[in-house]
């Protein structure tokens, strides 16, 4: 499986507007919902917020990977957004998150799929040059072309 099997241009926003973690979460959930991924925004947000309470998904290196498994998710998808001036995500390294990947997985397929996606993403995102290229993406098409490498 490739990351681009579960994301597309419509799920990418290279100019997130939110100024807080919650606003960014709402924007990305809205994008998933607009693309028919969710049965219920409210229930999926509940899963995301629950996971964030267990520990921040800000993994450092200006990256956050909020994720949730829920019955509210119809198909596995990843929404991606760029917050150029960063937002506090309570990351372990204290850096604001600029690259935010939201993983939505249906509850019934949660175990395996979820971990595979996380694995693919984190491996590629350790590459500083790749992160920089993503930050420089000017539109969702450019971002998607870069994500094809994951």
TrEMBL record:
Major localisation: cytoplasm
Keyword entries, A-Z: Phosphoprotein, Phosphotransferase system, Sugar transport, Transferase, Transport
Record has Lyase as a keyword: no
Cellular compartments annotated: Cytoplasm
Domain named PTS EIIA type-2: residues: 5-150
MF terms (GO), sorted A to Z: protein-N(PI)-phosphohistidine-sugar phosphotransferase activity
UniProt-listed CDD domains: PTS_IIA_fru (cd00211)
Lineage top rank: taxon: Bacteria
GO process annotations (BP): phosphoenolpyruvate-dependent sugar phosphotransferase system
GO (cellular component) term, any one: membrane
Phosphoprotein listed as a keyword: yes
InterPro entries: PTrfase/Anion_transptr, PTS_EIIA_type-2_dom, PTS_IIA_fruc, PTS_SugarTrans_NitroReg
Full protein name: PTS fructose transporter subunit IIA
Native species: Alteribacter lacisalsi
Classification of source organism: Bacteria, Bacillati, Bacillota, Bacilli, Bacillales
């Amino acid at each position: 499986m490739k990351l681009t099997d579960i994301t597309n241009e419509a799920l990418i926003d290279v100019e997130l507007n939110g100024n807080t973690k919650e606003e960014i979460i709402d924007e990305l959930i809205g994008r998933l919902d607009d693309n028919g991924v969710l049965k219920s925004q409210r229930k999926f947000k509940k899963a995301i917020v629950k996971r964030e309470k267990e520990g921040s998904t800000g993994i450092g290196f200006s990256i956050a990977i909020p994720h949730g498994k829920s019955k509210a998710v119809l198909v596995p998808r990843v929404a991606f957004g760029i917050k150029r001036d960063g937002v506090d995500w309570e990351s372990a390294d204290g850096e604001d998150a600029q690259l935010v990947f939201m993983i939505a997985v249906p509850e019934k397929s949660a175990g395996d799929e979820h971990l595979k996606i996380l694995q693919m993403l984190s491996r590629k995102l350790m590459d500083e040059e790749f992160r920089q290229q993503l930050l420089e993406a000017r539109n969702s098409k450019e971002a998607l072309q870069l994500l094809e490498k994951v």
